[in-house]
Amino acid sequence: GLEFGSPLYSPTLKCYPASQGEGSAKSITLTVRVSSGGGEILSIDPNERVQTVEVISTTGGALHYSEAVFIFDVVNTGEPTWVVDLDATVPEGWDLSLRSSVTVAAGGSERVSMGVTPSSDTVANEETGYMITLTATVEGENLEDALQLWVKVVEFHKVELNAEENFLTGEEGELLKVNITLTNSGNTEEDVTLQVTLPQNTKLNVTLSRHTLLLSPGESAVVEMRAEVEGNIKEETTETVRLTAYYGGDRSGSVDVTFTFEPAKGPSPSGAVVWIVLIAVVVAVGLFIFWRPPKGGGKAGGEREGGGEEPEGRETLAGVHM
Fold first, then answer.
1. Is CB count within 10 Å lower at the N or C end of the chain?
2. CB contact at 8 A, 59 and 42
3. Structural domain of residue 11, as residue ranges?
């Protein structure tokens, strides 16, 4: 037989063989007491079967929770001495600290502590909590009992922003782009709103690829920030833009990105010089070919050939050949 009161408020559970009633000399009682992580008893009210844990650090980017420690007594109201085996069922990945068995003399009791630590990926649950089932059995005697405990996990809010580059340089008329990663490093879903803050009298026009995000615990998303200079600038312009993420009520996180723009440059002088030189060379070659005097001392090209008499020597020479 098994006897216990309300599963939510009953502080004491008794177990005894099915063949015997509550008055049997063979019975075990588990009485739960609540303590802090250090083991100090905060309350001996047996109705306190709910513990609350919270994030105590984020070392290495992982969440580390405080430990829930339950103090309970294993009471033997029977006549023989019993070796009571203890076990507990916890959510997957949680750490459990509990001795495997305890020897309880007839009519005596043994105080036992049980520590439970949530895993780093545990999601916040402050309403119902996570149930822990503690069991006590005596092998071969058909003695068994169970006790339900609850661990509530407090919300922890943290959204981190990381820019792939914090300093960008461009030229007037160029559109600079940078990716910014937002990561939910907390244990509860976050509804994130983004806001851009520009310097006073800014010359930049800054836009975002998106302005709102919904991030689950451990989830990341990328937002693109685009910046360009408005109007004409006569000298180098450097301005720092702040991107702020608001989440979890009044919480926020931010990252700064600095943009530098240089005045636009004209056509490349080197290119113009090359074209001028090439054109000059072509013209010079053309003029040289056109005005080149013929072999034998004839008139330069462009002069009319029939304007005068041929030299006498040329006529005699022609006559000889003819």
1. C
2. no
3. 2-153
